Amino acid sequence: MAALDRFVAEPARVVVIDARGARSAGLAAAQALGAAVEAQRGAMLVLLSRADADATAAAMAAGATSVLVSPFGADSFVSAVQLANRHAARLAQAAATPALPVLAGDALTGLADLDHMVAWIDGHLAAARPVAVIMLGAARMAQIAMLHGRDVADRLLVAVARRLGPVADGPAGRGEARLLGRLSGADFAVAVASHGGDAAMMTLARALVSAFQRPFAIDDRLIHIAGRAGVALAEAGDVGATGLLREAQLALAKAGAREPGAVARFSAEAEGALLRRQADLESDLYRALSDGDIAVLFQPQARLDNGRIEGVEALVRWDHPVYGRLSAATLLETAASLELAVVLGRHIRARAIAAAAAWRGPLAQLKLSINVTAQDLADAEFVDTLAVDLAKAGLSPRRLTLEVTEDAVIDDMDCAAATLALLRQDGVTVALDDFGAGYSSLARLARLPVDVIKLDRSFALGLVGSEREKLVVSAMISTARRLGLSVVAEGVEDDIQLAAARAAGCHLVQGFCVAPPLDEAGLLALCSQPGTTTSVA
Ligand code: C2E
Ligand code: CA
Ligand code: CA
């Protein structure tokens, strides 16, 4: 892109994009230049036709620092360029002089820290001013630290802070006071005292979140992170600062389950309903365990060399009579809160093993993978009950794989390793699940008796990410191969990721590109296709 090269090569400070009558081309140009303009602390003025005035927000999100809507005279244009130039000059100056407010507590970003923010909010509430908190979360930070190092992650946080600053300092209602802080890790928050009400705070939250839309330029890397926000409002005497921050955190968790850029509002009714539902679920779980409301689905794993389906992973679901089909996570959390996790685990294993043992025809040779938690492994009867399940159903241990996550083994590595070693002697395969989602190194995990590693879904994305990400993932795969481990790429959704997984040397893939988790009928239908081959071959 010639314009980008020119901008980077010349020490230009202001970019003007004339998008009048060329809305999409103009926005595309703004998008292409946005990161570079920001990295060089420049300004970008976008000219829009009156008919396209509604594209203002899109232009700002793409990186414009100001927008001028036609018709306008030469004077307005010149003063808009001058303003843009001044804006760029201010940015350059701000970068040269570290503008740390005296009150700030976060050494890295110069923003308020948690203590400071709590005191600030309590102060305003005590003075009978309503306060709103917008909690902002940036996804993928742990992974970025792992891929690029702590130093880059820290500089990214500083860049985030710098980008949020102007939005937080943007146009405010009369008498409104705002404070931007970093509470921990990648959790930023804006507190607003004497705010302009619900709608105004949602608008501000959306503006803050859109600051994450463009990638961040750190050195020569462009880093994409997704932002989300949770909003909570309080009157004096309602809740204290800590309560308000917790409500905003709950709202952020709600946004976390939605698409990137989502903004969620804390609502006492909805969150109350959530708690009520939780109570319902807890009382219904006992019933589910005896009534067979628990369904086990099977997701195929296909070989990358010949496309054949070699095995399946058992994934649990809860068919609740009122709430419908609930996720594995909901079921497992409910069981954990009732201390029924071990009982549930046994139930699922027995069900899955019995099902696999009864498979005939095209399913007869399939291997079965079962998820095992730390609690399962710590259960003194784990090995025995598993042996009983296998014997009762008549399933050879050679057809069974146990998937353990590193969290499950890291706490009590020696004990877990001993249990797994015992099972391997009987012919059971051991797979390390979600590999790469945590912080452990392969070297550390090589101590474990493991046959297979399952690369976390984030790596399927890494396989088609930046050059650096690709390098990290391929290095990991070749190390695993040298250690004699079989490598499964998980969460592979499309053909591009599939091709990348194959090129990087993975042995097997599991993901929507092969099939979603299926019931037994669906599995049989899939495996009955000629040659049991899928689109993978
Ligand atoms: P997991 O072991 O990493 O399982 C893979 C998860 O990724 C499954 O979610 C699966 O449905 C989902 N998935 C598969 N292919 C794709 C894809 O292409 N794209 C995306 N985005 N997702 C894909 P699920 O079934 O909701 O299970 C979530 C987690 O719950 C599992 O993660 C596992 O840790 C746990 N879990 C599920 N079933 C059981 C079980 O029977 N016992 C135990 N202990 N844990 C289970
Ligand atoms: Ca798994
Ligand atoms: Ca996994």
Fold and architecture overview:
This protein has three domains: 1-96, Response regulator (Rossmann fold, 3-Layer(aba) Sandwich); 102-266, 2-Layer Sandwich (Alpha-Beta Plaits), CATH 3.30.70.270; 301-313 and 341-527, Alpha-Beta Barrel (TIM Barrel). It has an eight-stranded mixed barrel, surrounded by seven helices. Strands 5-6-4-9-10 form a five-stranded mixed beta sheet, with helices on both faces. A three-stranded parallel beta sheet has the order 1-2-3. The protein is of the alpha/beta class and 537 residues long. Residues 97-102 and 533-537 have low confidence and may be disordered. It contains 21 helices and 19 strands. Helix 2 (23-39) packs parallel to helix 3 (56-62). It has helices spanning 2-9, 23-39, 56-62, 74-96, 114-126, 141-148, 150-168, 198-210, 241-256, 268-291, 328-337, 341-357, 374-378, 382-393, 406-410, 413-425, 442-445, 457-462, 467-482, 495-503, 520-527; strands at residues 14-18, 43-48, 66-69, 131-138, 177-184, 187-193, 216-218, 221-223, 227-234, 263-265, 294-303, 309-320, 324-326, 367-372, 400-405, 429-435, 452-455, 486-490, 508-510. The structure holds ligand C2E and calcium ion (2 copies). Ligand C2E is lined by residues 299, 314-316, 327-329, 332, 345, 348, 371, 373, 403, 433-434, 457, 491-493, 511-512, 517.
